[in-house]
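TEACHING EXERCISE
Course module: macromolecular assemblies
Task: Read the component lines below, then compare them to the predicted structure of the full complex.
Student: A.B.
Group: 4
Components provided:
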Amino acid sequence: MSGETPGYIGFGEYSQHVPHSIPSAVKQATDRFVGTRAARVAEIDQWEELRQIGSDIRQHTLENLDRYLETLEARVTEAGGQVHWASSAEDARQAVLQIARDRQVRSVVKAKSMATEEIGLNHALEAAGIRTLETDLGEYIIQLAGMGPSHIIVPAVHLKKEEIAALFREKLGVDAPADPVELTRIARERLRHEFLTADMGISGANFLVAETGTLVMVTNEGNGRMCTTLPDLHVAVVGIDKVVPDWESLTVLLKLLSRSATGQKITTYTQFITGPRRAEGESGPKEFHLVLLDNGRSRILADPVGRQVFKCIRCGACANVCPVYKNVGGYAYGWFISGPIGAILSPQMLDTQVARELPYASTLCGACAEVCPVKIPIPTILRHLRHRMAQGDEFGSPALPAPVGAAARMTSLALSRSWIYRLGTRLLPFATALLRRDGWLKTLPYPLSRWTSVRPLPAFGARFRQWWKARVRSENG
Amino acid sequence: MPTVQLFITCLGDQFYTGTLQNMVRILERLGVEVTFPAEQTCCGQPLFNNGFDDQARPVARAWLHAFSQSSAPVVGPSGSCISMVKHHYPELFPPGSPEHHLASDLAARSFEFTEYLVRELGVTDLGACYPHRVTYHSACHYLRELGLREEARLLLNAIQGLEYIPLQEEDTCCGFGGAFSVTFPDVSRVMMENKVQNIIASGADTVVTCEPGCLMNIAGGLRKAGSNVRAAHIIDLLASTGETA
Amino acid sequence: MPNPILENIRRSLERSGQSGSIPLPTVLPARQAGEFDAETGLFMEELRKIGGAAQCLPAGGVSEALRMLVGTEAIHKAVLWRTPGLLELHIPEILEETGVTLVPAGAAPSSLAECDLGITEADFALPETGSLGLFSSPEKPRAVSLLPRIHLAIVRPQAFRPDLHQVFAEARRQPYLVLITGPSRTSDIELTLTLGVHGPQKLVAWIIEEE
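Instructor-supplied answer key:
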């Protein structure tokens, strides 16, 4: 199974050493998107109704996923496409490699696809000696830099134009000024040649329409169109959760997606691709392959709470409002997907250190759930994942260290027996008397030192119960 | 004469005796009879939020037992605690069970303090006086789970002499998050510092909130930053007659 | 042949015990068409907002407008869709007269990439977003609206649709549709908006007025 970013050190540990450039750049992006999203949402009177319909469409699809996938496969095949089913990330990589080997592919151009990042496809292609080029500008930049994405929509936002210019000078051997327009022009020229000569184009999909076997791609730059129009071979790697029942559903989901993601009414290019080109002399790929990726999705469907993560339409609105994400950036999440959606997806798909930490790396503030266009109840799912880790359930055994469970049981005991609680309440002021300074406790023993190292705790001073008792006594004479 | 049961909350109990006393005074001035079920401890939120459902249940049962001895509504100074009772207690017990029935009954008659004043009693002017520059932190569960968007502002606007200053990023989480503050102290720190910086930048001399947990966090943060800004529960301002700060 | 993924899905859905409760919802009704002048006005306003150029012209005005475009944009090579609508407007002749080299629509992409101008005829126009919808066929190559530096779309009144619903009702049976809304763009570098990334740098739409 594809795993964490190499060198990943754990959310907590990473958060102690976040390079300042990342949150400040991420915040600029998130503030911008929050503003543009709000403007687009305000234009639609029926936004809340749309969200509910979008949520119901996605929920309905997940609950009938097998039927819709069967219809999808039949329609894609009728249209002349080939469907490959990949149970695991390795199956998906092998399917793509096999197609590449059969067609003697030496170079690949890739449109932005989170599914391909999920399975580590680029690495597998490069290892097989196939030149693989990211063509989305942000992805192209971070590919040159050898880094991961810091934000779902604008993956290179943490890099300043001076850094990108230096990168282009070093890796492309061109004279690159620190100007976004010029840098974009350089990338355009470089990639144009690649688009025209590549043997295979790889993409993901935003949606797969079961009704007609249609692949929907929502983009802005034009590279998505290039990758799926110019090479003779188009391979799409798409999670099985991307299925939508019909074109009517798209009218809702497309409206929700672009407004939530970038605050656009609609993105520059929306493509609807059904199979390979139909006629000789028409432009477009001769062959179309659809690799349907499971990689744990079918397993997760068994959890009625956790599976709601697959309603996601990958807009990034949750990350844009998350105060935790904004302060740590994408790398802390240790995988291709970050922010609140990453915090509920990664733990269900991976069994690694990140899986154990992410559900707790949240204050459950609920800002994400308010903006999710398909009403994924992210805080509910976070809590549910914490529950699964604390107590286990039919999906897995408890995964927390024993002392934590013991502490929870002791806390439960103290709080459910009034006399223990009240005794503790009386003792705490005495127990901490010596540490009290001016009404505050500046230091406390572990684990409360984790609080006081950041800010002081008010001094324990419970006197209400005595006051009340005295009041009652004096009233009764 | 209406009667309410006081839910003082574990944090209120430990740290905010003065606020609880003010809550009693305000309610009595409004002609509400106040009772205090002394058996109460905590709503169990810290256990529930961290997924310890089995451990939260006995605590919830104890709470339900303490407050079901009377049919009077329950009023508490914490949005998150009331939300725990209203939204999560029924979830903890299987439908059809006696506890579920009890939880549903109590959920329907439990109110956050400002919610009780504004929505149940229909009162916004308590005759309070607090001639200061005041800004407001909108606590997460209070806002998003109880849907209390304007109640605090309505109450503040009726306070004599009070100059209201909007807070930048008013509804952004302060970084408390219960156990989060000790499991991820570095992220909690940054969020708290953001909140404190916004408060200081507002020019207010007082920041109010309706959540003891946020209050602990923000007050501590202001203190750490060496700021003189006072952090108070809204109840303390509502009880203020202008004679004391 | 049994499909393990579908089997797993069925098993999981059974296990979860809560499936099949949500029916496919009805979507909100489609927007209705407004008065034609209002629709074209809205279309042009929306297209301009996102950096495209738009104007209304009578069929007889195409010649002059095209000459002007060729001059101001320094067009040397152009390619166009082989559709009756474009031929009716004598576009190939006008271009030849202005000294523009016509690259055949069926030429290799590398030749199309050298073109300064690609001319298409919109199958659909959507006023609310200023979007154009284009099908694909041997006479209507996709690359014509993608590779050249400038994309000019001729829009006939009958292309207008009020909403995506109407577009989809017709497009669902077609093998390809692209909705184009403005010139290509990115904000990937320091959130600075840059027009003209991989797709055309300029999008021009001419709405041909009815006689």
